[in-house]
Write a structure and sequence with these properties.
The chain has 111 residues and is α+β, with helices and mostly antiparallel strands. It is 40% helix and 11% strand. The chain has helices at residues 5-12, 47-78, 103-106, and strands at residues 16-20, 26-30, 40-41. Strands 1-2-3 form a 3-stranded mixed β-sheet, covered by helices on one side. The protein is rod-shaped, with a radius of gyration of 41 Å. The relative contact order is 0.08. Disulfide bonds join 8-18.
């Protein structure tokens, strides 16, 4: 509800209009903002811009959390340790047959 000019002059100290809320608070709408007027607002409902910023920030954080979750899930699926499959061992060089040394080398092979 717009209030008369005397209320604006007393509370807003500027040439403008006031918006008075049912709870008794008010907002000033100034035609010519001045540094001396600390109560001067540019719109009757300045909270709507803040609310939009908060909603946008929350939406961005939710999207970021979803992206991180799916990236983690994809990384977990690609990891062999996470799926219970052991990584293959490195191939070993074939064993060379060793010849016995000492007395065993001089003995003839048994048939």
């Amino acid at each position: 509800m717009f209030v008369d000019r005397s209320f604006c002059t007393a509370h807003c100290h500027d040439n403008g209009m006031c918006w008075r809320y049912p709870n008794g608070s008010h907002s000033c709408i100034c035609y010519e903002p001045s540094p001396a007027n600390k109560n001067c607002g540019l719109s009757p409902e300045p909270k709507s811009e803040t609310l939009g910023f908060i909603v946008g920030l929350v939406a961005a954080l939710v999207l970021l959390a979803i992206f991180i979750f799916f990236f983690w899930l994809d990384h977990k699926k690609a990891s062999p340790a996470a799926s219970g499959i052991e990584a293959p061992e490195e191939p070993r060089a074939p064993r060379e047959e060793t010849t016995p040394s000492g007395a065993e080398a001089s003995a003839p092979p048994e048939e």
